[in-house]
Design brief:
222 residues; alpha/beta; Rossmann fold; three-stranded antiparallel sheet; 9 helices; globular; binds cytidine-5'-monophosphate; Cytidylate kinase; transferase; ATP-binding
């Protein structure tokens, strides 16, 4: 299979990162989680007491920020200015604020620029919200993964339970729906299925089903 570029988009907790990791592993590709980049900026903004609504301050902060994504044993490791923040960027406080940080034009154009530099060589699976529409509009394969909010909240709840994190199902569902709403109604590259993306409703699909389906299509296109 050739070094194609696979763009994987969809709403929060649709299983994109889990699937993307496995697809990349199966194809020998590199996995890039772009949500981690927005989360890292959000984490630093919170530390620096910057309001997520302040576009200019966020942009200035980003221009003085080095975000590195490195492959690790259990998936991607994230570094902020040389320090590992892989688990820190998953904190509730970051999750609650990330969509407000990610809606700004200045922030997005810089992030998209950095992401485009990462995909130059192909052989990648990139997941996010605007990969097929803005980051790699000419990707060889675009997949839009969806699932009902109920099912996505259920998956996140189970994931937390496994990690020993206590959570409230209704609260999780509300947080997911709120993030989806901000992501899909923002003015700059909102979350939307690209016209030429293949839509996978994963509500009744297992991760293995999703991985097999995507790698099958990738083989046809590669
Ligand atoms: O993928 P994840 O849920 O970690 O993404 C966190 C947030 O980052 C999303 O809810 C969205 O606001 C933002 N994001 C984005 N564009 C991307 C990836 C993530 O706006 N390509």
């Amino acid at each position: 299979i050739k070094n194609i570029r696979i763009a994987l988009d969809g709403p929060a907790a649709a299983g994109k990162s889990t699937a993307a990791k496995k697809i990349a592993e199966k194809l020998g590709f590199i996995y890039i989680d772009t949500g981690a980049m927005y989360r890292t900026l959000t984490y630093k903004a919170i530390k620096n007491h910057i309001n997520p609504k302040n576009e200019q301050e966020l942009y200035d902060l980003l221009m003085n920020t080095v975000i590195e994504l490195k492959p690790g044993k259990e998936g991607q490791l994230v570094f902020l200015d040389g320090h590992e923040v892989t688990s820190e960027i998953r904190q509730q406080e970051v999750t609650k604020n990330v969509s407000d940080v990610a809606l700004h034009q200045l922030v997005r154009s810089e992030m998209v620029k950095r992401q485009q530099e990462l995909v130059q060589n192909g052989g990648i699976v990139m997941d996010g919200r605007d990969i097929g529409t803005a980051v790699i509009p000419d990707a060889e394969l675009k997949v839009f993964m969806s699932a009902t909010a109920e099912e996505r909240a259920r998956r996140r709840f189970e994931e937390h339970k496994k990690q020993g994190i206590e959570s409230d199902f209704q609260e999780l569902k509300a947080e997911i729906e709120k993030r989806d709403h901000i992501d899909s109604t923002r003015a700059v590259s909102p979350l939307v299925k690209a016209d030429d993306a293949i839509e996978l409703d994963t509500t009744h699909m297992s991760i293995t089903d999703v991985v097999n389906k995507v790698t099958e299509i990738a083989a046809e296109r590669g």
